[in-house]
Structure formats: C-alpha cells, structure tokens
Amino acid sequence: AYRVKKRFANYTLLDLIPVTGRTHQLRVHLSASGFPIVGDTGYGKKKTSCPRLFLHAFSLEFTHPSSGKRMAFSTPLPADLRGFLQSIA
Questions:
Q1: Nearest one of 63, 64, 41 to 54, comparing CA atoms
Q2: Do the Cβ atoms of 77 and 57 come closer than 8 Å?
Q3: Is pLDDT at 8 greater than 90 in this prediction?
Q4: Which of 4, 83, 14, 12 is nearest to 49 (CA)?
Q5: Per residue in 33-85, pLDDT tens?
Q6: Is 26 helix (H, G, I), strand (E, B) or coil?
Q7: Nearest to residue 16, comparing CAs of 47, 44, 49, 54?
Q8: Is it true that domain 2-88 has CATH number 3.30.2350.10?
Q9: Using an 8 Å Cβ cutoff, are 29 and 14 in contact?
C-alpha cells in the first residue's frame, strides 16, 4: 500500500507500507512498475545526486513476543535525505 506525500518535477515522495515482509519487497515492486526508489543501484540504474538509497523506516510497530505489549517507534527523516529533498524542491 502507498500514499503520495509530495510531488516534485521528476520525483514523488511516497509513504509505503510493506504487505508481505519479503526481502526487498518495496524495491522490487517499485522497480517493476517503472519507478525505482531513488539511489537504488540494485533495482534502478539511474544515477542521482541522492547520497544513498532513499528508503527510510520512519515508524515500526509490533507486538512484543514476551510481554504481548504493543510497541511503536518512530524517527525523523535523516539529514542527508532531507538535504536531497531540499535540492529537488
């Protein structure tokens, strides 16, 4: 599942929610759709000024295996990825 967060001239920022949890699920799906993740040298070949793969887990939720308590964590977008967004705005 996905949601468009912001459109740029040549890029689109998405919120992505993996469905299967399979390795590289998001990378493979977007590349097969013709829209690889920025900086993905494995599934997308286009060079960009992005310093690395533009993929960030901004939140993670799970049930703790011992306590059964619901755990939720979040973290902001790192400075290098924020810088790339500023450079394309």
A1: 41
A2: no
A3: yes
A4: 83
A5: 999 999 999 998 778 889 999 999 999 999 999 999 999 999 999 999 999 99
A6: helix
A7: 54
A8: yes
A9: no
The radius of gyration computed from the CA coordinates of the chain, to the nearest angstrom, equals 15
Asked whether the beta carbons of 31 and 40 are under 8 A apart, the reply is yes
pLDDT score of 6: 96
Q: Give the three-state DSSP class for 31.
A: helix
| 3-state SS, residue 83 | helix
Residue 19 has pLDDT above 90, yes or no: no
pLDDT value at residue 45:
78
Q: What does the DSSP assignment read for 35-52?
A: -PPTT-TTT-----S-SS
Per-residue b/e over 2-26, b at no fewer than 16 CB within 10 Å?
A: eeeeeeeeebebeeeeeeeeeeeeb
List of residues 6+ apart from 34 with CB closer than 8 A = none
Collapsing DSSP to helix, strand or coil, 72 comes out as strand
